[in-house]
Structure formats: C-alpha cells, structure tokens
Predict the structure.
Amino acid sequence: MRVPGPIDLQVNGFLGIDFSSPDLSEESFAKACRELLRQGTAAFTPTLITSPPDVYSHNLPLIARVMEQPEFRGRLLGLHLEGPFISPEPGAVGIHNPKWVLKPTIPFLDQLIEWAEEKVKLLTIAADAEGAEELTRYAVSRGITVSLGHQMASEDQLDRLARAGASALTHLGNAVPNLLHRHHNPIWAGLAADNLDAMIITDGHHLPPSVLKTIIRAKGVSRVSVVSDSSPIAGLPPGRYRLWDSDVVLEESGLLHDPQKGYLAGSSATMLKCMNYLASLNLLELDELLKLGFYNPLRLIKVDPESIKPDSSLNFDEGRFWVM
C-alpha cells in the first residue's frame, strides 16, 4: 500500500554534516538533505540548536538559499530554531552549550528571522525563561509556531505560554534532568496541558514504550507528532565522535549518548526508523500512524499536505514502512 512519507520537524544534521557547524557549506547541507530524503523522509525542517551569533549569521542564510533550489521545494519546509532561548540549567539544557543560551528578546529574534530570510517556521523556547511570554506573542504574530522545551516549566508557566500562542512541546519527556520532583515537573505539566501538542522521539531510546503509550493516550492521536531529533551522527557507523563540544558514543544498538554527562545526544535514527519502531509497538492503526507522522506535523507548522512533492511516498506492508 502506498502511503505518504513522514514529515520531520527536528533534523539537526545527517551523515556527519552538522547544520549548526560554523563550517557548514551549501554543498554539504544539500548532500545531507538529499540523502535524508532518499532514505524515506518526505519533508523536514532543518534544525539549528543553540549557537553563537556568528553561526546563525553564516548558517541561516546559507540554508535559506538551498531551500530555494527547485529540488528542495516541497521538501524543506522552513527552519526550526531549537534555542537559543532555552534554559541553561543542567539537564534542561541537554547537550546544548549553556554558554550560548540567551534570554528571550524580540530584537534578537528579529535578527534571526532576517538572517533566515523569513524562513523560520518553528521556534523552541523555554516557558520558564524571562521574557518568554512576550516573545511568544511576537513570534506567533510573525507566523512562527512556538514550541516549549528544554525547560523546567511549571503548569502555570505552560498555561501562560499556551494562552500567549504557544502550541506544542518539543520532544516531551526529554531535555529534563534525570531526577525530578515526583509530581511537580515539566513532564506531568506537559501531559496535562490540553492546548499543547506533544512532539515525541520514537527511536526506541529516548522514551520507553510505556511512556509513549501514556503520552499518546493523554494527548490523543490528533495532538501528537513524531520527530526523529536526528543528530549529525545519524547515518554513521557505531563509534566515538566529537559533537557540539562533547565526546559522544554511538552504540551498536543505535543509542547515541554523552557518557560523561549522562545524557542522550540526539538520535541516530531517521524518521523511517522512528515510524517503524512506533508501528512495532502495536499501539496504533495505520491511519493513526499517518496522523502522527504526516498530517499532525504539517498542521502544527501550518503547511498544506498538498504542497508536499507527490513523489515523497512510502510503501506500507505487514506493519512496516519501506522506501519504494
């Protein structure tokens, strides 16, 4: 059966090519995009993590130029800025460098939008950051979807940001400290936030099946989107690598982590692998899987499904997606 290929709202790089690297070139970025699309992702939003200003000023216009190339129209849907307006606290900051975390300010967001040639589609910020509410209202007024993550936000803070226009939670269940208050923590608060969709990483390492099942049941099938959180290490063989100022290890199992800090370092999976892992759990029917992998992400960033290139499809047979 032919079905739409998945939409990925969080791709940090692929095949050793880091979208947040100061050495990124148009050629290397295009190469990573071509290969990722060849491996089953229908369309995606290239993602930059928290970076110094000179990286933004170099990479954002570079990516914007490549997005205009005919081969990527209907496949590269806009930019996802995961930071720099996140929490610098250990655990919440994840593998992002806290040195480059900034308090939310409209002037710097305006600068990011200008560098990106108006192509910012998704912005991840921390709901507990000073100025987050004002920034959210402004970003939404510019047509940007605001998602909340890398934070230690309370229920009240999430509610205030939702009322300001935020509409999602970035990789719910991750980017928090390993130890949390048993009741008052961003995961429970996020599950209870009825006006916020959940993005979840279904690579088999970021969230156990019981948590995936709980999030999907709490939010409902219409309010959950799968993301890969694909790291620049994705597509490379197991081994030790240097990534974002950290020494990380890619295990044979596909687990990518920083053993010194005790945190994951993004995912080594493509969206095809994420969708097949989710399908293997037998939690959802095919039409529900397509909502989580295709329709919900597009709705979240306000993109018409008809605008996706018609050749970006997969086969589905015996409970598994595969490239045609």
User: Anything to note?
Assistant: The mean pLDDT is 96. The two ends are 10 Å apart (CA to CA).
